[in-house]
Amino acid sequence: MTTTHPCRSDISLCPLGTKSAPERELVCIFGTGDLGRSLGQRLLQTGYRVVYGSRRPHSCDPLPQGAQVMSHTEAAQLATVVIACVHREHYDFLEAAAPQLKGKVLVDVSNNSEKGLYPESNAEYLQSLLPEVSVVKAFNTISAWSLQNGSSDAHRQVYLCGDSADAKQAVRELATSLGLSVLDRGCLSAAREVEDFPLQLFPQWRLPLCLATGLTAFFFFYLLTRDVIYAYVEKDKDISFRIMVSLANKVFPIVSLIMLSLCYLPGVLAAFIQLYRGTKYRRFPDWLDRWMLCRKQLGLLALGLAFLHVLYTLLIPIRYYVRYKIAENVVSVIRENRTTVFDTTVAWRSDSYLSMGILGFVLFVLLGITSLPSISNALSWREFSFVQSKLGHLTLFFCTLHTYLYGWDRFLRPSTYKWWTPPGYMLCLVVPSVVLVLKLLILLPCMDRSLGRIRQGWERRGPEGEGTKPLMA
Ligand SMILES: NC(=O)C1=CN([C@@H]2O[C@H](COP(=O)(O)OP(=O)(O)OC[C@H]3O[C@@H](n4cnc5c(N)ncnc54)[C@H](OP(=O)(O)O)[C@@H]3O)[C@@H](O)[C@H]2O)C=CC1
Ligand SMILES: [Cu+2]
């Protein structure tokens, strides 16, 4: 009972330039669990034939249509590539199938629940159990879930390692047919490293999260000192209740704006480096590369903080403190028979401040949405870079202007500088202002033209007469 599923066009699995499906080879999968079933289904969709080796060939759960199921030894006999979709704890059963597996390729897909659980990697352990098979470590970075849903996650990189070049080549072909990109990590001794990859928890988020936490802690204590402690020491007033909303609603937008500008700073720095070097064919320093790689996470964290700022701002009218102050003001105006004058400048300023905030936030949300893989995959490169670069800088501009309008002429008043320190909003304007000025400089026609030529491959002759040949392709 074999299948010859045609390549399905809705899941882009068809490998480019590969043979047509019918004569595809037979792959054996040990274990009818989650990964075994999903991998088998994808292999069948790609045109492979699949046979399962199971402890219970007659009573296992429903399998992908078209797959065969038999005992481990029978199944191993039929195929040259066997994928062991079984947990390491159960590998000893494989010794019974050693004669049938001899000389074949055995793929180890296993992962561990934590680092350093065993003295040797799972793949090396498997190789020691079956010295006469060629063990290849692969597929451990994919998940049954993404295979089943055909999500873009399933198109991620597969790491490969093993001691036999032929065995690795066979597995590489299999993985490429599944639409996965393959990265060879070398000998089987690299298996431990490969097994540790899936255990990394949000590796690209670590730096942005540390930064957000650090900045939040710094600004919290800075503003706590300037607002609450200052009032307590200098004016003998206890306004500690402000920590919960007022202080939080200062810290969040401050950190959000700094993080948003840190998203765009590496881009302009990179442009200046290219202008200075007069070439795009030289690598950026490592720190800049790493910074560029976590821009999306920086932006998403900044968006989260901006959301908090919006929510905290919306609840201002229902705060007890605010309602109390408004009522007290109205009562005192009536009691003292004062008249208040409507100040058009203040009205303009406050409306512009709010308007810039709203525009900045809406664009910010748009940036966040377009960074989602499902949306960004649907955009062309030009559309994506238009949104992320042009709209991104516009967002930064609106949010920065929002903060300048908030400050307005406060910088002129000596009372602003409590204990000779500048207020938080002033500090947070430094980085975004620098980024915007640098971006404006890049947009100057002469700079823009040079950068455009460099990005098209033009090179300025170096002082040492390096010539115009690319230094690195
Ligand atoms: N699930 C996932 O997304 C991923 C899993 N992996 C790795 O793939 C392997 C399988 O994972 P998964 O499919 O989730 O696990 P499951 O628990 O869903 O399935 C494991 C299968 O192993 C077989 N099995 C269980 N006990 C024994 C035993 N004592 N002797 C022989 N066979 C046994 C069973 O198949 P049967 O009853 O047919 O014999 C069972 O269905 C693991 O090593 C895991 O680390 C790697 C990447 C992702
Ligand atoms: Cu604001």
Features:
473 residues, binds copper (II) ion, disordered C terminus, alpha/beta, Rossmann fold, binds NADPH dihydro-nicotinamide-adenine-dinucleotide phosphate, 52% helix, 8 strands, 18 helices, elongated
In terms of topology, how is this protein built?
Layout: E1 26-30, H1 34-46, E2 49-53, E3 68-70, H2 72-78, E4 81-84, H3 98-101, E5 105-108, H4 122-129, E6 134-137, H5 144-149, E7 157-162, H6 165-177, E8 181-184, H7 191-196, H8 206-234, H9 248-277, H10 286-293, H11 295-314, H12 320-335, H13 344-370, H14 373-376, H15 381-407, H16 424-428, H17 430-443, H18 445-455
Parallel strand pairs: 1-2, 1-4, 2-3, 4-5, 5-6, 7-8
Antiparallel strand pairs: 6-7
Bound molecules: NADPH dihydro-nicotinamide-adenine-dinucleotide phosphate, copper (II) ion
* Biggest sheet statistics: 8 strands, mixed
**Averaging pLDDT over every residue, what do you get?**
88
Q: Kindly state the number of beta strands.
A: 8
Order of helices and strands: EHEEHEHEHEHEHEHHHHHHHHHHHH
Into which percentage range does the β-strand content fall? 5-15%
Which segments are poorly predicted (pLDDT under 50) over 5 or more consecutive residues? 1-21, 465-473
Shape: elongated
Strand order of the largest sheet: 3-2-1-4-5-6-7-8
Structural class estimated from helices and strands: alpha/beta
Number of helices: 18
**Quaternary assembly:** single chain
Please tell me how large the radius of gyration is. 31 Å
User: Number of domains in the coordinates?
Assistant: 2
Distance between the termini: 51 Å
* Fraction of residues in helix: 40-55%
